[in-house]
Amino acid sequence: MAHGPNQPFRVQLKQPEDGTPGGRSVALVDSVTGKLRGVQDSRSVTGGPWINQYVDAIHTGEIGGWPLRLAYAMARIAISVQSFTGVALWILRRKKTQPDTDTSSRS
Predict the structure, then answer these.
(1) Whole-angstrom distance, CA of residue 12 vs CA of residue 24
(2) Furthest-apart CA atoms within the chain: distance in Å
């Protein structure tokens, strides 16, 4: 969708090797004349756009497949367990080191 009167439409295109349903190639179409203003082909990008595509592919699991997804799941579980046990140990240690404030035993 164009954001202004002179802004081009962004059309997303899918190449056969794209692992995403919507594709990664982009065509910019003039919103007034309908002429093609530019194309960013996912097969020929370099620099920043290539890094973005690569990171996105890792994030969605297209690269690495099930082994990488399993490793991510194990890392998420480990972080959760470490967070819980860390807080639990901190609370237990804090209870041990607090001085006894019970004054009823003093005479």
Answers:
(1) 7
(2) 95
Task: Name 72's Cβ contacts closer than 8 Å, sequence gap at least 6.
Answer: 61
User: 24: exposed, middle or buried (C-beta count within 10 Å: 0-12, 13-18, 19+)?
Assistant: buried
| Contact call for residues 36 and 29 (beta carbons, < 8 A) | yes
Residue type, 35: K
Question: Can you tell me the distance from the alpha carbon of 31 to that of 71, in angstroms, rounded to the nearest whole number?
Answer: 45
Q: Could you tell me which residue, 29 or 43, shows the higher pLDDT?
A: 29
**Least confident interval from 28-32, 52-56, 97-101:** 97-101
CA 106 to chain centre: 59
Q: Tell me whether residue 30 is exposed, middle or buried, using C-beta atoms within 10 angstroms of its C-beta: 0 to 12, 13 to 18, 19 or more.
A: middle
User: What does pTM read for this prediction?
Assistant: 0.47
For a pLDDT cut of 90, what percent of the chain falls above it? 22
**Sole residue written with tokens 């609370």:** 91
Task: Report the 10 Å Cβ neighbour count for 64.
Answer: 13
